[in-house]
């Protein structure tokens, strides 16, 4: 079972979009996928038009069995969503022992017989929820917009992963850096993509191009594959799905 966190402490770089479309694409390749929404904004519910009856609060605080509370939204695709209660969960977790590994504990009985992939949508910060995701995951995909401030944020995120690996004797690997919002007509986009490729040779995936359909799809509670299957966004996320499966 592969446990992948989609993470970047900078917001607005396409984390939720990546989780939804990567998960949907994998599910349609007959992979059993579970999405964990670790962002209190709860955007997975909006993007997929569904909410699990019990959510991440129940998983982290009440230690509900994730196999029982996950909602199947289409064949092979399951979700445990979040709400504002997740911020309360973080407060409760702060007072518990081994608080950085609570997610590891509540997920410890989940095996590859249950799911092939667990994908985590992480909040745009380094808080206790993100710490739990980083220590539960064995891979990280880091979406990063192709603009200057996002490139700075990318470097900081990689430093955080290195710090946590050292501090907690963990071995989270960076499965890929995903350039997002790429426009080859924009000089800054081209320059930043070049910097990414120069500094992180071999880790940078094919970019997700600017595409209005990716922006519109959540408003219709659909993945890009359902909303505009021939769009650039669908083509680009299909490439990411194929990359992840190839490395399975």
Task: Give a nutshell description of this structure.
With 248 residues, the protein is α/β, with parallel strands linked by helices. The protein is 44% helix and 15% strand. The longest helix has 20 residues, at 148-167.
SSE layout and pairing:
Blueprint: E1 2-6, H1 15-27, E2 33-37, H2 43-48, H3 56-60, H4 66-69, E3 71-74, E4 77-80, H5 85-94, H6 102-106, E5 117-121, H7 128-136, E6 139-145, H8 148-167, E7 173-180, H9 187-199, H10 212-216, H11 224-227, H12 232-246
Helix pairs in contact: 1-12
Descriptors:
248 residues, alpha/beta, Rossmann fold, seven-stranded mixed beta sheet, 7 strands, 44% helix, globular
Total strands: the figure is 7
- Supply the number of helical segments: 12
Integer average pLDDT: 95
Strand order of the largest sheet: 3-4-2-5-1-6-7
- Name of the CATH superfamily: P-loop containing nucleotide triphosphate hydrolases
Number of domains: 1
Structural class: alpha/beta
CATH class assignment = Alpha Beta
Based on Cα principal axes, name the global outline. globular
Identify low-pLDDT runs. Answer: none
Looking at the structure, the CATH topology is Rossmann fold
User: What value does the Rg take, in angstroms?
Assistant: 17 Å
Taking the sheet with the most strands, its summary is: 7 strands, mixed
Give the helix proportion (percent range). Answer: 40-55%
Estimate what percentage of residues fall within beta strands: 15-25%
């Amino acid at each position: 079972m592969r446990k992948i966190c989609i993470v970047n402490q900078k917001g607005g770089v396409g984390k939720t979009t990546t989780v939804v479309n990567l998960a949907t694409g994998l599910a349609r390749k007959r992979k059993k996928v579970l999405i964990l929404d670790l962002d209190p904004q709860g955007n997975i519910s909006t993007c997929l038009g569904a909410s699990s009856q019990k959510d991440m609060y129940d998983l982290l605080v009440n230690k509900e069995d994730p196999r029982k509370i996950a909602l199947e939204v289409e064949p092979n695709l399951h979700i445990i969503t979040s709400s504002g209660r997740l911020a309360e969960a973080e407060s409760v977790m702060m007072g518990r022992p081994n608080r950085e590994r609570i997610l590891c504990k509540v997920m410890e009985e989940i095996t590859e017989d249950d799911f092939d992939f667990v994908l985590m949508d992480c909040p745009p910060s380094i808080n206790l929820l993100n710490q739990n995701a980083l220590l539960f995951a064995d891979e990280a995909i880091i979406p990063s917009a192709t603009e200057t401030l996002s490139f700075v944020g990318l470097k900081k995120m990689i430093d955080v992963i290195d710090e946590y690996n050292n501090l907690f004797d963990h071995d989270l690997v960076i499965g890929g850096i995903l350039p997002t919002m790429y426009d080859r007509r924009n000089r800054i986009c081209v320059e930043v993509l070049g910097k990414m490729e120069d500094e992180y040779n071999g880790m940078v995936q094919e970019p997700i191009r600017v595409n209005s359909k990716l922006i519109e799809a959540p408003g219709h509670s659909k993945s890009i594959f359902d909303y505009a299957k021939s769009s650039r966004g669908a083509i680009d996320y299909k490439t990411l799905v194929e990359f992840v499966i190839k490395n399975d």
